[in-house]
Each structure stands twice: as structure tokens, then as C-alpha cells.
Amino acid sequence: MATFLRRLVNAAPALRSNAFGGQSKIHSSKYRFPIGAIAAVSGGISYMYYVSSSDLVHLDQKSEAGGPKVALKSDKWIEFKLQDTARVTHDTQLFRFSFDPTEKLGLHVASCLLTRAPSGVDAEGKVKYVVRPYTPISDPDSKGYFDLLIKVYPQGKMSQHFASLKPGDVVEVKGPIEKIRYSPNMKKHIGMIAGGTGITPMLQVIDAIVKNPDDNTQVSLIYGNVSPDDILLKQKLDLLASSHPNLKVFYTVDNPPKSWKGGKGYVTKDMAIKGLPAPGDDTLILVCGPPGMMKHISGEKAKDYSQGEIAGILQELGYTKEMVYKF
């Protein structure tokens, strides 16, 4: 396990230092909207979301002629072997899956993958499956492996299945599912509001921007959690912000200690005014979190899981549908 953790820190230092063997907790939110309601790291709710939404695109690896071979298939469930696991907090675990080291996973920024596990049989004796989306925290360009950071819920069918896995076991994966296609300098300024594990798709975009010297996009992130100990990925976010002047990060927590110097409470209109780019044609605001947070910040998605209308704080501040994307 120690070897795995060292490799992980060197290959994808996405977790704060006390995540490995520390006593910090991932949250069960008092955010008026439970951050714990996020069903997966990517914030997805159900498989129906990913097969029904009109604003999502199933990528076809076969169209990328001449590029590196990819491990994922958009039309076929592929088995990936669990290489190792690590406990991050009392209810969050890290899972590394391996595949052919000459291949790339096949993710684009920003996209996620689908996982499935058997969940009994139906009346006709056919196997039923539970399907959930997850956003890998490893670099999309990594070859031979990908990492999932998963919060294990007491009643979570898929997360409990992951928790039961041992090295050598396999999980069926399909995808990727593209949410929004990022391209360098597509907007002058990107604002982000994330709650809890909703940080992972934001990190995909941030990583893509900061590792590209030709990408001049300004990024402003507001990240809400219950307490400072619940801030996932903080070490990496702080490092990126300190070394890239085009990235600004603001943390707010529900239960701050006396020594806390960040924001206090849930995201407010004043925080958004100070921390996000102003509405405009060259501005994009990304939002990811549990349903209650989405309602408070940007309005929920429509019943058909399309983007829906803008509401909440962002609507009050003058942002339009064209300026906001809800993960």
C-alpha cells in the first residue's frame, strides 16, 4: 500500500497531504442542501441522466484515426482490473484501475465514465445492473491506469460494491460521456462553483488549462465544504494556485474554526460578485454540486436533464444560459 501511495502522489498529486492515513473527514453537509447527496464523484444522479440528456455527447473513439489507442469504448462495457486501493477519509476511498500501458483511457475534457455492477435478477431471471457515473481524478493523458475517488455511502449500491473490491477484481466501465468540450482559450475567464466532491470535473478543466502554456484562460474557483478538513484536493489546488497566477481559489466552509481565514457559510451573492468574472460574452460559469446547491446557485437542470433555465444567485446577478454550464 505504501508503494501505491507514493506512486499516486508522484503521478497525480490530487489529494491533500493528510488524506493518506490522516484523521480528516469527508462531509455530511449542513449546507441546507446535503453535499452528501452527490451520488458519485462527478455529481451524477442516475444512468438515465447520461443516456437522456440532450446536451451530452457519446464520444466515438473510432473517429480519432491516427491517435493513440484508447481503452474505453462508448458502445461496449469493458472490464478494468483493480490495481490497488487507499483510504482517504473515513468514508472516501481511492481506487486505481489498470489497463494496457500502451493505451490511453480515452477521456476528453470535460467528460466522465460509467460503471456498472450486478444487482440481482429480474422476474425473468436476467441480471439487473446498477449504473453510476464517475469522474477520474488522474490525468486524461495517463497511460495504463486511471484513478477514481469515491465516497462510500451506507446505502449506496455502487459505492458499496466498490468498497467490497479487492486488488485483482474487475469493474465494467463504459464511455466516455462528454459533458462540455473544453478547448484552449474558448473563454477569456471561467468561473467555477463547486460543492464537496463536485470539485472533480472542475479539476479536469483546471488541469487542462494550467498545463498548456498557450492557454491564457483566467480561472476563478469558489469551493464550498462543511469544514476545512473536508476540502478534498486542497493540497493540489493550493499548489496550482500558487504557481499559476491565472488561477484563483476561494474556500468557504459551514463550520469554520477560529483560525479560519476563508469564507464562512454557503456561497452567497457577495462571494459570487467578488469571486467570479462578471457576466459577459467571454465568460463561462461552471457549477457542480448536489441538487440543493444547484438550486441555490444556478437553478436545477430541467426534468429531461438538459441544462434548463438559469435561476438562483447567478440569475440574480445577470448571467444567462449561454454563460453557465451545470454538470
TrEMBL record:
InterPro entries recorded: CBR-like, Cbr1-like_FAD-bd_dom, FAD-bd_FR_type, Flavoprot_Pyr_Nucl_cyt_Rdtase, FNR_nucleotide-bd, OxRdtase_FAD/NAD-bd, Riboflavin_synthase-like_b-brl
Gene3D superfamilies attached to this UniProt entry: Nucleotide-binding domain of ferredoxin-NADP reductase (FNR) module, Translation factors
Keyword list, A-Z: FAD, Flavoprotein, Mitochondrion, NAD, Oxidoreductase
Principal place of residence: mitochondrion
Annotated catalysed reactions: 2 Fe(III)-[cytochrome b5] + NADH = 2 Fe(II)-[cytochrome b5] + NAD(+) + H(+)
EC code: 1.6.2.2
Segments forming domain FAD-binding FR-type: 75-183
Superkingdom as given in the UniProt entry: Eukaryota
Name of protein: NADH-cytochrome b5 reductase
Organism of provenance: Cucurbita maxima (Pumpkin)
